[in-house]
Amino acid sequence: MNNIYIIPIFIPHLGCPHKCVFCNQDEITGFKSKIDEEYVDNTIKEYLKTIPNESHIEVSFYGGSFTGIPLEKQKKFLSIAQKYIKLGEIDAIRLSTRPDYIDEAILDNLKKYGVSIIELGVQSMDGDVLLKSLRGHTADDVCKASKLIKKYGFTLGLQMMIGLPGDNRQRSLKTANEIISLQPEFVRIYPTLVVKGTYLEKMYKNGVYEPIDLESAVELSKILYIKFKKNGIDVIRIGLQATEDINISKDVVAGPFHPAFGQLVKSSIVKDILDSIFQNNGIKDGLVDIYTNPRSTSTMVGQKKRNKIYLETKYDTEIKIIQMADIPEDSVYVGFNGQLYKDSIENYINKSTI
């Protein structure tokens, strides 16, 4: 679906009695204002003024555990969003919540007010990781909530994190496999960051927690991305969105922060595709043309020309990047000695044995 616009309503900490080790919602969302019905209504009105006609518009309640809010407050917030659905001005309502705050009564109420998309903060399916992260729920809670959400006909999204206390590559892959078995329509992948004001910051400064490094986070996220996409699950975000506060020079104390983390992951996939094309077709010792859609050039070349430098060094080639608007954005075309070799991210993922 093209031209999807999200109207974000941030509800930091409302409804959430837990204090997970990584969480400081005020900094993560960049939002510190009071939330009430007037704020919700005004936010929707202001966003609608800027969104083009014929767009698919969704109001999204982010940042807290929405279904943990007192029921009457849930109803007041949802009724405002539902009003705009009835007016034909928005198309959907979505929200994020905890897996242990889902039951039949809650879902009945969400159905009544027109909610269609529910995201669960899974973070991990490993009991030890959940315990060390002070999540306050179990993997079994995730399974029960996910199945119930799908039974009710909601679109299900699941969020996972890598690099939590006690986590490792094997445990993250286990989490991914269990998420795949739950068949969500989409996922988000977040590397764990050490943010100011969190218990994780204390753990880090006391030497009991070591964050995953950027290179390892990119490599693991790449594998997870491929696994999810190969199994027909859309990956709608990789990495926490940078804000004025969520920045390595501000409130991020440590961890694999990068303002374009998702692009690093996709660029790494493209590097693997190009590496495979070069290796399988004997491309070396000469001039090579790489054709790309202008929108994909930075992903193709890599941050600080990393992909280009890697290939030129490994295969003793000189690479020329040629931009062509008619090439699909996820495609990779390589010209060498009069031959043109083609591949795409989608095809590469489908062939993957990960």
Describe what this molecule looks like in 3D.
With 354 residues, the protein is an alpha/beta fold. It has two domains: 4-259, Aldolase class I (TIM Barrel); 266-351, 2-Layer Sandwich (hypothetical protein PF0899 fold). It has helices at 25-29, 37-50, 71-86, 104-112, 127-132, 139-151, 169-182, 199-205, 214-230, 261-280, 297-301, 306-315, 345-351, and strands spanning 4-10, 56-62, 92-97, 115-123, 155-162, 186-191, 194-195, 234-238, 252-254, 287-292, 318-323, 331-336, 339-344. A seven-stranded parallel sheet has the order 1-2-3-4-5-6-8. A four-stranded mixed sheet has the order 11-10-12-13. The protein has a two-stranded antiparallel sheet with strand order 7-9. Helix 7 (169-182) links the parallel strand 5 and strand 6 (186-191). Helix 2 (37-50) packs parallel to helix 3 (71-86), helix 7 packs parallel to helix 9 and helix 9 (214-230) crosses helix 10. The longest helix is centred in the C-terminal third of the chain and has 20 residues, at 261-280. The protein starts with a strand and ends with a helix. The relative contact order is 0.09. Mean pLDDT is 93; it is low at 27-31. Its cofactor is [4Fe-4S] cluster. Keywords: 4Fe-4S, Iron, Iron-sulfur, Metal-binding, S-adenosyl-L-methionine. GO terms for molecular function: 4 iron, 4 sulfur cluster binding; catalytic activity; metal ion binding. This is Radical SAM protein. InterPro entries: ELP3, Elp3/MiaA/NifB-like_rSAM, Radical_SAM_C, rSAM, rSAM_horseshoe, rSAM_sf.
Quick overview of this protein structure:
The chain contains 13 helices and 13 strands. With 354 residues, it is an alpha/beta fold.
